[in-house]
Design brief:
The protein is α/β, with parallel strands linked by helices and about 325 residues long. About 40% of the residues lie in helices and about 15% in strands. The chain is built from twelve helices and eleven strands. The chain has helices at about 15-25, 40-55, 80, 105-115, 130-135, 170-175, 175-185, 195, 205-215, 220-235, 245-255, 305-320, and strands at about 5-10, 30-35, 60-65, 120-125, 145-150, 190, 200, 240, 260-265, 275-280, 295-305. It comes from Serratia liquefaciens. GO terms for molecular function: hydrolase activity. Pfam families: IU_nuc_hydro.
């Protein structure tokens, strides 16, 4: 049976690659796409989702979500990573893109989860504002969600700690209060953070092969990743780029490719370590312990990076030839 998924996203180059992987996978039923601010403005993020839906024939609903964090000030869109339009500044045909759901993203999530109790996986690859708003408005959905998969955070495994500050990852620091709310809600969370996403790299050779072999998706992915690859080369001296958001989709399809640790997670919401994600392992109680009564969640700490690359390629090529 296919895994029913609502994909919460701020498309975004790597978000778009992940969205297309979910669409192409025979293991996933992409029911909904909820948008959030981050890589692009909420208007551009939603336009990009509708554009991808139209261009590639997605049947998923699209609902517009939050344009500001719960508490902290909103940062500027990361145009230096994703381009002014969020898709690497490729040409996007002018005009209106119709078909947006009338509900706010958090209401769409609540209604969908209640309509399919125990069946929906929420995969969030941007700020966690929409998920936090949903579980705050209706806490009962926590017991009805199959799983929450989050691309975000960093816990220090494999030498990866942060990419915005020494200890904070972009999605988490973008709305740390929302992230802490999501991590501590009584639903099953799996975090696919920098610990594993920065272990997997798509090289130029890999993207060239995808461009040739995936008739449906390859040329589009090649075009949007030119800007993304240039950023990684300029800022980090990399030949290729990290596989962030698609790793969350891969986890939903093939969790056996990942090793996890279990424990309660908290997110620092102020001070110089704001956005830092912290996992408490073991059952020891402390005199002051803001983890002790929180639910145990899962954090990915190791990954079969070649398995991730092989699954992405096989999925995109197989779908393209159908």
């Amino acid at each position: 049976m296919k895994r029913k998924v609502i994909f919460d996203t701020d498309p975004g180059i790597d978000d778009s690659m992940a969205m297309l992987l979910a669409h192409a996978s025979s293991e996933i039923e992409l029911m909904g796409i909820t948008t959030v601010f981050g890589n692009a403005t909420i208007e551009n993020a939603t336009r990009n989702a509708l554009y991808l839906k139209q261009r590639f024939g997605l049947t998923a609903d699209v609902a517009m979500g939050a344009d500001t964090p719960l508490v902290v000030a909103a940062g500027e869109p990361t145009t230096f990573v994703h381009g002014l339009n969020g898709l690497g500044d490729i040409d996007i045909p002018a005009g209106e893109y119709h078909g947006i759901d009338k509900r706010a993203a958090h209401d769409y999530i609540i209604d969908s989860v209640k309509a399919h109790p125990g069946e929906i996986t929420l995969i969030a690859v941007g700020r966690l504002t929409n998920l936090a708003l949903a579980v705050e408005k209706d806490p009962s959905i926590a017991g009805l969600v199959k799983e929450v998969i989050v691309m975000g955070g960093a816990f220090g495994h494999n030498g990866h700690t942060g990419n915005v500050t020494p200890f904070a990852e972009a999605n988490i620091i973008g709305d740390p209060h929302a992230a802490d709310r999501v991590m501590t809600a009584d639903w099953p969370v799996t975090v696919v953070g920098l610990d594993v996403t920065q272990q997997t790299v798509m090289t130029g050779e890999y993207i060239d092969r995808l461009r040739l072999d995936s008739a449906r998706y390859g040329e589009f992915i090649y075009r949007i990743t030119r800007f993304y690859a240039d950023f990684h080369q300029r800022e980090m001296g990399m030949e290729g780029f990290y596989v962030h958001d698609s790793s969350a989709i891969v986890y939903a399809i093939a969790p056996e490719l990942f090793d996890v640790k279990v424990g309660a997670i908290r997110v620092i919401t102020e001070g110089p370590a704001i956005g830092h994600t912290l996992l408490k392992e073991g059952g020891k109680r402390y005199p002051i312990d803001e983890w002790s009564r929180k639910p145990k969640q899962r954090v990915c700490v190791q990954v079969d990076h070649q398995g991730v690359l092989d699954l992405y390629m096989a999925t995109m090529v197989e779908k393209a030839t159908v």
